[in-house]
Design a protein that fits this description.
The protein has about 80 residues and is an all-alpha fold. Helices cover about 30% and strands about 0% of the residues.
Length: about 80
């Protein structure tokens, strides 16, 4: 098995300099599950949540996270991500 570079000998996470790596095109695929009361689900779909459009807020949060990858990868050198 190859050595894991983001962990030290005690298994703790550590910073890794990846600035010299060649750029590559990558694609991430993710799957998730959300469990909730069926009544809550119906309220979300019908737009009847008192605080507003739950799905629109979730979409905006996802877009904001995708535009700020430096905050999503704590074990990488921040200088490799554009500001």
């Amino acid at each position: 098995m190859p050595k894991l570079t983001h962990f030290d000998k005690k298994g703790r996470a550590k910073m890794v300099d990846v600035s010299k790596k060649k750029e590559t095109v990558r694609e991430a695929v993710v799957r998730g599950s959300v469990f909730m009361n069926p009544k809550t689900f119906k309220s979300i779909l019908s737009g009847k949540i008192a605080k507003g459009d739950v799905l629109a807020v979730a979409k905006v949060a996802g877009i904001m996270a995708a535009k700020r990858p430096r905050n999503s990868f704590p074990c990488a050198i921040p200088s490799i991500f554009p500001t």
